[in-house]
Amino acid sequence: MLVLLLVAGAWSGARAQQPVSAEQASPVAGWQFNIAPYLWFPTTNMSLNYNLPADLGGRLPTDVSAGPGDLFSHLDIGAMFSADARNGPFSVLTDFIGARFSATTGDVNIKSVDFFGRLSIPISRTLQTSTGTTLSQVIWTLAGGYTVLQGDWGNLDVLVGFRFLSVSARTDYSLALTLAGPRGNGATFGGIGDVTASRDIWNGIGGIRGSIRIPRSRFFVPYYFDIGGGGSQPTWQISSGLGYQFRWGAVSANYRYLVFNQGSNAVVQRLALRGPMLMVDFGF
């Protein structure tokens, strides 16, 4: 899987922040294409709100936090790519990431058991003798852009499009407690078991992207920002870094932050991905 990430690694919006190159300072007739493989080292923080079985009724708020080491050492499968096409001031960009990884006991925290209409019962981490989460996620971005400013200093594009998030999660638990359900039907929660959740979330987005060139050099500062809503309240991302332009493309080191928020009653309450990345952009 590490080889796969090195060859075609990408996260949503990564190609979107790659700027127009120095050789493209003036409009060029015809289509130009770019492919940008890169390696991202994200920290993932997710807040889930699992539904308890119907005979119990309620929610199971659970936090999953995984660093770059957890992601790479527990990655099960991944397929990722990004691409960009430009014709004069018009551009189209797309980015896709699909990955499944596991988080172990130290990365998973079941915060409480919230029975509907009853008190929320906190669960101490000392009672969580074993927990683990398998998380599958797909993030896909598609947007169209238009260059509104361009010169020797760099460029500024505005963009409009959408971002799609699909999440499927399963948490297995072993708890040193047993709680009686509130409905008087003999149902209990605790011991050994599992809970699952899945959601598809669509959002419209709008934003800007481009670069600022450093005078008398091939270095540039790429920048990207978007914000949107729909299924999320809201989703946004921001990224910048430092790049170096070659004739065949560019190499850059960036830091990116991507967030989805859905509120306290949603199954996927929040997903935040942030971290540094190395990207190589090939133009043709």
Task: Describe the structure in your own words.
The protein is mainly beta. The chain is built from two helices and 16 strands. A hairpin with a 7-residue loop joins strand 11 and strand 12 (188-213). It is elongated. The two termini are 28 Å apart. Residues 1-26 have low confidence and may be disordered.
Beta-strand residue percentage: over 45%
Q: What spatial order of strands do you see in the largest sheet? A: 1-5-6-10-11-12-13-14-15-16
CATH class designation: Mainly Beta
Number of strands: 16
Task: Give me a quick take on this structure.
With 284 residues, this protein is mainly beta. It has helices at residues 2-8, 68-73, and strands at residues 31-35, 38-40, 43-51, 58-66, 75-87, 90-103, 108-110, 112-115, 120-122, 128-151, 154-180, 188-213, 219-230, 235-245, 249-261, 268-283.
Secondary-structure blueprint:
Layout: H1 2-8, E1 31-35, E2 38-40, E3 43-51, E4 58-66, H2 68-73, E5 75-87, E6 90-103, E7 108-110, E8 112-115, E9 120-122, E10 128-151, E11 154-180, E12 188-213, E13 219-230, E14 235-245, E15 249-261, E16 268-283
Antiparallel strand pairs: 1-5, 1-16, 2-16, 3-4, 3-16, 4-7, 4-8, 5-6, 6-10, 8-9, 10-11, 11-12, 12-13, 13-14, 14-15, 15-16
Question: What would the keywords be for this entry?
Answer:
284 residues; mainly beta; Lipocalin; ten-stranded antiparallel beta barrel; 2 helices
